[in-house]
């Protein structure tokens, strides 16, 4: 089409009605900073285009799409989606004349880089380096693994859709309307944006039953279609002027319904758009009942609309991308691209020939975008990152984080165990309350424990449980932990966990966490059956939950964000000195502003009315248990020293609460009576398991002698 005709076409189509959205039009505060980075990306990695093309791309400000679609993201969180938006738009221009084989090669190479199968940075600047950096940016902003994988799947779907469009463009025949809609669901980019929206406002916490609800999934599809539709309206004159691109709603409608004029097709296409918009807004206002998640789900649905409006707002800006003569020709029509394994290269005979960057050889290690080894390094994270850590002693009862101002629970009924919960806040310098540190006990976690391959290799050896005293014990670092791991002990652990949870008012944690203030990562050391870790995984689906234990007795079916590993928390004797090997190490591992909490059971008995006979069998048993534990460097009484130990280590704002655990059904309060009966059953079930190894190693008692002792108070 000659320039005069093109100018007239643009003018005529500009007078037709455009889509109109009822959603707020918001702009991210980092839009200009992001645009500055975007211009650097163009200079660095777009040398496969001409200088004039690079200048045009800078004017287009493709990064603004992300800044308008996601107005609440931080600059770090914007980078992955902005880089995706920018480099995919440019490569779409570049591959406009490529064949399906070439597109498949691009898709495969890009997928390998996005998933980390190729995990080395491409040696040359270019498109593939930008794809590589999408993954690096996602790692840098701590994007949850499951969310990143959904985002990548949507990108791969988009690249697949590009290839599917080729058959219609090659035939210069618009696809049937149904086929067009299927293509637009893939190629509009809307599905990618909808997946990435979970990075905003803690929507990553939304559980699967919300995000996979048919209404939400339909809204994802409608958002993708709306973005595809309005892109077609804006880009129609460009596509008519250049020819060869017929996957456009207006062209499809004109052919589908046999309409004689472009204006009729435009009006019919706008009706299709408005029908989709009407359904979308209806679903926004008519969400199913999501219970606890209702408010967050409603905000998510609202922000899906903001996302659609944001993409459209960029399309209507005067960027110079949709004006007469703006089509960027980066490869001649007579210059088909050739591919080789290392990268993509064009023939050099054409004046529009370009060369892609070389792609490194395929990575041969474990496939995974976010390797668990990243969890083992302590480093400063963005100020809006939330992280927390669990660590507990050999009773395996530490299953809760701390709260800023924990309230003492009334406990006017005597009990025999003191349950101490101590919370420590950060270092003694100026601390921003919103700045949480990466809390990782490097002194308890061996690097090999985080390797997928190494952990798998432990499977057979760690399940060959040694048997002693008629009970089985852990095989990994055998002898490190004195309690059994057999079915009877697993049943007791479940009962014990339930008792503690009920005593704490059914709280999973005391930390200032919520659905809008989630932890990024939780490590539950000595996780036992893993039931607490699993509950946390269900509650916070966007968090990474890791449990470690000497015995692999956790279930196989767990939430996708929960991982269990065999590891010994006492590898370096961390229970020998609580102050030097726990409190000080925890302080050293925390960033300023970090939270640490420990929960300890004082493994002794008492009566508030002093009626317990100190010379009786019960008192003697628990006294021997405390003595033997101390001699084995597994102290059973820590609650009394916690606060002092943490303050000596340098922690500030140390708070401590003590709760009493009743034994038996004597309490007047029905809740405490129920807890007391369950705790009594827990102790009676565990008396032998607690004592067999400890009494044998320390006092040289046989199992028969221990049984005689136990029989006195059964």
TrEMBL record:
Alphabetized UniProt keyword annotations: Lyase, Magnesium, Metal-binding
InterPro entries xrefs: Isoprenoid_synthase_dom_sf (IPR008949), SAM-dependent_MTases_sf (IPR029063), Terpene_cyclase-like_2 (IPR034686)
Region (Disordered) location: 383-409
One Gene Ontology molecular-function label: terpene synthase activity
CDD domains attached to this UniProt entry: AdoMet_MTases (cd02440)
Basic and acidic residues bias: start-end ranges: 393-409
Domain of life: Eukaryota
GO biological process: isoprenoid biosynthetic process
Cofactor field: Mg(2+)
Keyword Ribosomal protein: no
EC number(s) recorded for this UniProt protein: 4.2.3.-
Recorded family membership: Belongs to the terpene synthase family.
Protein's recorded name: Terpene synthase
């Amino acid at each position: 089409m000659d320039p005069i005709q093109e100018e007239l076409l643009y003018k005529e189509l500009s007078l037709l009605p455009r889509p109109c959205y009822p959603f707020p039009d918001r702009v991210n505060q980092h839009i200009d900073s992001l645009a500055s980075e975007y211009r650097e990306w163009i200079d660095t990695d777009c040398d496969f285009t001409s200088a004039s093309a690079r200048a045009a791309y800078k004017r287009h400000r493709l990064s603004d799409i992300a800044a308008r679609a996601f107005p609440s993201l931080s600059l770090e969180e914007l980078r992955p989606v902005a880089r995706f938006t920018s480099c995919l738009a440019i490569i779409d221009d570049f591959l406009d004349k490529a064949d399906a084989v070439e597109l498949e090669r691009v898709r495969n190479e890009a997928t390998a880089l996005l998933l980390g199968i190729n995990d080395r940075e491409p040696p040359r600047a270019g498109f593939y380096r930008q794809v590589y950096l999408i993954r690096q940016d996602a790692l840098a902003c701590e994007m949850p693994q499951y969310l990143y994988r959904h985002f990548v799947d949507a990108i791969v779907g988009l690249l697949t859709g590009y290839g599917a469009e080729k058959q219609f463009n090659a035939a210069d025949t618009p696809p049937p309307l149904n086929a067009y809609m299927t293509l637009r669901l893939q190629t509009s980019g809307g599905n990618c944006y909808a997946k990435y929206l979970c990075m905003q406002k803690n929507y990553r916490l939304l559980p699967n039953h919300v995000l996979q609800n048919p209404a939400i999934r339909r809204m994802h599809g409608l958002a993708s279609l709306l973005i595809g539709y309005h892109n077609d309206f804006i880009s129609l004159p460009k596509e008519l002027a250049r020819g060869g691109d017929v996957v456009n709603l207006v062209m499809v409608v004109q052919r589908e319904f046999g309409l004689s004029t472009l204006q009729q097709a435009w009006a019919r296409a706008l009706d299709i758009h408005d029908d989709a918009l009407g359904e979308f807004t209806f679903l926004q206002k008519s969400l199913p009942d999501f219970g606890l998640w209702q408010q967050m789900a409603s905000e998510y649905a609202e922000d899906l609309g903001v996302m659609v409006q944001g993409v459209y707002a960029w399309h209507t800006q005067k960027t110079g991308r949709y004006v007469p003569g703006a089509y960027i020709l980066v490869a001649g029509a007579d210059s088909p691209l050739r591919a080789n394994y290392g990268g993509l290269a064009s023939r050099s005979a054409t004046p529009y020939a370009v060369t892609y960057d070389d792609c490194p050889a395929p990575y041969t290690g474990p496939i995974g975008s976010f390797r668990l080894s990243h969890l083992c390094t302590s480093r400063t994270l963005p100020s809006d990152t939330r992280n927390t850590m669990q660590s507990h002693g050999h009773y395996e009862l530490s299953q809760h984080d701390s709260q800023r101002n924990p309230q003492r629970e009334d406990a006017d009924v005597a009990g025999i165990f003191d349950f101490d919960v101590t919370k420590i806040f950060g270092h003694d310098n100026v601390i921003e309350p919103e700045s949480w540190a990466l809390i990782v006990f490097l002194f308890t976690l061996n690097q090999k424990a985080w390797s997928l391959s190494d952990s798998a290799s432990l499977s057979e050896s760690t399940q060959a449980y040694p048997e002693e005293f008629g009970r089985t014990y852990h095989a990994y670092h055998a002898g490190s932990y004195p309690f059994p791991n057999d079915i009877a002990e697993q049943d007791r652990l479940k009962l014990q966990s339930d008792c503690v949870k009920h005593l704490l008012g059914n709280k999973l944690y005391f930390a200032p966490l919520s659905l809008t203030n989630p932890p990024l990562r939780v490590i539950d050391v000595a996780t036992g059956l893993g039931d607490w870790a699993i509950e946390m995984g269900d509650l916070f689906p966007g968090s990474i939950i890791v449990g470690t234990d000497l015995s692999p007795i956790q279930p196989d079916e767990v939430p996708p964000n929960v991982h269990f590993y065999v590891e010994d928390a006492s590898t370096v004797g961390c229970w020998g000195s609580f102050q030097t090997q726990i409190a000080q190490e925890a302080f050293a591992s925390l960033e300023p502003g970090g939270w640490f909490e420990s929960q300890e059971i004082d493994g002794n008995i008492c009566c508030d009315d002093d009626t317990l006979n100190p010379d009786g069998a019960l008192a003697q048993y628990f006294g021997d248990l405390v003595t033997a534990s101390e001699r084995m460097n597994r102290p059973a009484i820590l609650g009394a020293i916690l606060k002092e130990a943490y303050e000596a280590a340098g922690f500030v704002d140390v708070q401590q609460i003590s709760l009493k655990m009743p034994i038996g059904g004597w309490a007047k309060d029905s809740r405490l009576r129920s807890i007391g009966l369950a705790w009594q059953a827990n102790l009676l079930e565990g008396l032998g398991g607690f004592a067999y190894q400890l009494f044998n190693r320390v006092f040289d008692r046989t199992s028969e002698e221990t049984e005689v002792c136990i029989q006195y108070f059964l």
